[in-house]
């Protein structure tokens, strides 16, 4: 990095915490528990893009937290033609939130990277996830002790890429945008959101999607050592 960096802000889901793998395990648990005879692999494959769609709507304040949790499951069941009552969908939505943080697969290199960065920088989290759930993910995966502050959309009152959530994170961490960097997987929420407020950014581009040439990016977490 050209500027001396003092603070690093990480996104959590899809960046450090392997959301897709943990989500699949949570669904396997609750669908089997309730005897719902669907192909779990097919269910999860449909859920991934539908969940992304609803998170984008939530990010843009077009759906509420409750609508996100219900709608993403309803759409999957509709997609596979499985008839299920609203009451059961609401129950599954609650149980999914309960079980999800209990599975704690991290992306390869997460611990090694955090061990490398911790002595050199102050580390923080900025996430659009919900407060208690994100806290449980950090705690149960035993990485909470690496981070000095955790900013989420509930305590900040804004969601990435809204500039206010980044301003809030800088304020509570007593950091300066000029000496901070944001690392995340979402080009709009994490990367453009940070750059728009003057925070440098590096994209964790695991799937090697095409992005503008001026965007710093890595395909593995440990490749961040080349920048930091």
UniProtKB/TrEMBL annotation:
Q: Name one GO molecular function term.
A: 5'-nucleotidase activity
Q: What is this protein called?
A: Noncanonical pyrimidine nucleotidase, YjjG family
Q: Which organism is it from?
A: Flavobacterium macacae
């Amino acid at each position: 990095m050209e500027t001396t960096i003092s603070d690093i802000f990480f996104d959590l889901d899809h960046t450090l915490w392997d959301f897709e793998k943990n989500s699949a395990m949570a669904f396997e648990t609750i669908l089997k528990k309730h005897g719902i005879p669907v192909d779990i692999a097919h269910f999860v494959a449909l859920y991934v893009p539908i969940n992304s769609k609803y998170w984008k709507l939530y990010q843009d304040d077009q759906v509420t937290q409750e609508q996100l949790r219900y709608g993403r499951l309803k759409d999957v069941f509709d997609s596979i033609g499985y008839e299920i009552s609203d009451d059961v969908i609401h129950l599954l939505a609650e149980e999914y939130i309960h079980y999800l943080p209990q599975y704690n697969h991290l992306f390869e290199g997460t611990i090694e990277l955090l061990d490398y960065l911790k002595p050199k920088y102050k580390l923080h989290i900025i996430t659009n996830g919900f407060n208690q759930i994100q806290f449980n993910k950090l705690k149960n995966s035993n990485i909470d002790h690496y981070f000095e502050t955790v900013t989420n959309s509930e305590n900040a009152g804004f969601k990435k890429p809204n500039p206010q959530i980044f301003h809030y994170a800088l304020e509570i961490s007593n950091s300066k945008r000029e000496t901070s960097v944001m690392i995340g997987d979402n080009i709009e929420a994490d990367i453009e959101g940070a750059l728009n407020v003057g925070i440098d950014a590096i994209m964790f581009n695991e799937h090697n999607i095409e992005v503008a040439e001026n965007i710093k990016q890595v395909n593995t977490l440990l490749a961040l050592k080349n920048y930091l």
